[in-house]
Amino acid sequence: MCTISGHFSHGEPSAATDIYDMLKKMAHRGPDMHGVYLDGVVARHKTLDEFKPLLRRKCRIALGYSHLGIVGAEDLPQPYTSCDGKLTLIKSGEIYNHKALKSLLLYKHRFETASDSEIVVHLLEESYRGDLLEAVKRVIGIMDGMYAFAVTDGESVVLARDPIGKKPLYYLESGPITYFASQKKALWNGAEDPVRLRPGEIVCIDRTGRSNHPGVAVQIPQIDIVDFRDAVERYKIVLVKAMQKRLAGLRQDRLGVIFSGGIDSVLIAKLLQREGKNITCYCTGTVDSGDILAAQTVAEELGLELKTAIIDADLIQGILSEVIRNVEEGGLLQVEVAIPMYLAAKLAAEDGIRVMYTGQAADELFAGYPWYSDVLKEWGYLRLHEQLWEDLNYLYDDTLEREDKLTMSHSIELRAPYLDRDVIRTSMRISPRLKIQGCADELRKRVHRQAAVELGVPPFLAFRVKDPAQSGSGIHQIIENIARTQNVALDTELVTENIKIDKGSLYRYGRGVYGEAVARNYIQRLHREIQNSYRPTILK
Prior knowledge:
The chain is an alpha+beta fold.
């Protein structure tokens, strides 16, 4: 795990002090080691400050990297260069099939680390025939993982993002320079707005400008699993393999689980235990919230180690600005659902946890949310299947980028087994009739629940109904109460802006505007103040 950044100057070479500035603003994402590439010159240091003299030099292409050690003996931090010296790469994320990909390499490449990232640059080296964009298009099609990377051949820079959208990447065009970074805060300048790479998208930057290209997408399979037992067996196989992929090469003694007491997080905990891992579960909420009560009950029933943080008004008021700063969003709903995740990751970081697991996406794969019953009732099973795909495609914007930023704010990598490539393919081959057994089915997720039982979750837990997370943490009213005590004048422009930028499945399936204007006004004001604080450069 790491953070990446860079610039491409379309005119005269530009000072690389912007690399220091961007990495410093994202220091939490990669606190362990750092590396830079400046027009062919590669340097590495333990601290960013050691780069100051070098980064004052001007260059046309600059890449910056900060490392968070998770997988492999990456004692030599990125950037990594191909054996022929033509290509240099920086990457965030993990490639789960990197060992299989290494076996495809034709030539005897020189490897200096056990990092999955180094394998990618050698794959690109073998595919490169003078056209870097085409080489990237060919290689990402065989990569299985979550990633965002930048690679250069000295003439152009190509950016790419995984097809699920698990790892964020943004770019910004300002005058004659195109910048890019893992988070928006590194690019905020008060003028232009950062633009995200969409999942699977490729961006090519060269002397002629910037161009966007389709990369690899999650393929929509046919629905051909129509027998319940067949569905359960196939799903169990791919889910177990998905967890094993996300454990391979880890050096951590203890792992964390974002835990709510619902079936999805309970199954994640059970799968980790099946693989012999030591785990600690983390849950936050108000003293009487649904999540806390359910998590405590389930953890006791299953003998799981659980740590909790009780959320109250004083705690939220103390961390609200920090949450908005890290999530880089001001939408009221986005901020509310961010708080439990932020606090859970904070608890885990205090325990020295570097990798956590989440049950994210099981509801989209198996029609778990209550509103899917409404879709079925009104439109039928075909539309339900289409809606599941639509929600999976929105997941990067609704949830994934937010959760990546929140956990990485505490230097923790978040892994989501339900978002595995093969889990998605298999789950979406299953007939929706096997997921919801009619409009009156209050449980939903039938295949998922049965698989959980057969993988070790007690039936009384697997078949228990659970409320959505955002209504279980008890935070909405607290934020509204805090906003009312601030005595801030209501600015309708701020309220309108907050409504416009807010997002989530609640808006696609709910009716009306979520929350009160007073809360939106307060949150948006904080968001603007935070954006403004990032605009001055750190290294002149």
